[in-house]
Every structure is written in C-alpha cells, then in structure tokens.
From TrEMBL:
It comes from the Bacteria. InterPro entries: DUF6891 (IPR054186). It comes from Kribbella soli. Residues 7-181 form the DUF6891 domain. This is DUF6891 domain-containing protein. It holds the Pfam family DUF6891.
Length: 184
C-alpha cells in the first residue's frame, strides 16, 4: 500500500480480514466500514481504489484457507445450536453492534424465555483468537448466574454440539475455530 505506513496497512488488512471472515457483514457493510477506516486512518489514500483491493485480498486468503476446512465447521454447529435456542423460545441476536439493539429485540419478542447475543466485535475476536463470547440474559434483561437452569441448559446444548463452553465473569466463552464460508 503506497503512502500508508506499515502499521496502518497492517491494521487496514486486519480489519478487512475480520469483516470478511465474520460471515455476517455483506459487501456493502464491509465496503462502508473499510471506507470509513481508510478515511480516518489513511486520509491521503483513495478509499474508492483501496477498499476493493483490501476486500479482494481478504476474500482470496479466506478462499484459500477454506479449501482445507472440514465439511462441517464450528460456526456451522454454532448456527445449529442458535437455531435450537430459538426453537426453545430464546431470542437470538447475531452480530449486533451493541447490547442496546439486543435488548430491543428481547423487549419486542412475545413471551421470550431469554436472550442470547453476540456483537460484531465478539465475532472479530473469534476470528483472530478462537473464542466467541455469548451473553445470556433472562427475559427481564438480568444476566444469568452460575447454577441457574437457563445457563446450564445453554452450556449443555453447546457442549453436546462439540462447542466447548464455560461461563466466566458474566459471559459464556465458546472455544471454536472461526471457519465460516463466505460468499460476497
């Protein structure tokens, strides 16, 4: 990347990487986020020219890695568990910007059994570090506590689907390889 210092170039590539690999952001959202980042971090660069290159590089790297992935990945199993949570009456909010949006979804639901959610930054962390934080709330928005049946049921379902999970400091930490297949 000409006219960008090495650190900024690495950070922009890293952002493109997590946005693409998340599997939740579409092309328009990725483009918007990267355009904003280029405008803030590398204002001398032409975002319209640089952003497609960043996305293209991230997609090529992902596709190369994906060729060696197993047929069923950890995110595939996570998707199945999240769907099961929904069948059990939990509100599930994926890749949200913050807990306020998750709370709104919970409050809009009719007779929810609780809320499971994770944010975009939780997914980015999972992409890089192999651990996704899930938040689990009761219908009244209170956090679950150790030993509560809702928490134990959620942990059991995750573990039954080969997703190691522990409750720590108010959140569920799910160990997984973030291998989500993406089509942009």
């Amino acid at each position: 990347m000409p006219s960008v210092d090495e650190r900024t170039a690495r950070e922009l590539r890293g952002l493109a990487r997590v946005l693409v690999r998340s599997g939740y952001a579409d092309h328009a959202a990725i483009t918007a986020a990267l355009t904003e980042a280029v405008s803030e971090d590398a204002p001398s660069m032409d975002a319209a020219a640089l952003v497609p290159l960043l996305i293209g590089e991230a997609v090529m790297d992902l596709n190369e890695d994906a060729s060696a992935w197993p047929e069923s990945t950890d995110p595939d199993r996570l998707d199945a568990v999240l769907a099961e949570f929904e069948r059990l009456g939990l509100v599930v909010v994926r890749y949200t910007s913050d807990h306020h949006a998750a709370r709104q979804a919970l409050e809009a639901a009719e007779s929810p059994q609780g809320l499971v959610f994770f944010t975009d930054t939780d997914v980015w962390h999972a992409v890089d570090f192999g651990m996704l934080e899930l938040k689990l709330w009761h219908p009244d928005t209170a956090n679950v506590a150790p030993g509560e049946p809702l928490l134990e049921d959620v942990l059991a379902l995750l573990r039954q689907n080969d997703l190691p999970a522990v409750f720590d400091e108010g959140r569920i930490e799910v160990t997984l390889d973030w291998q989500r297949r993406v089509t942009l």
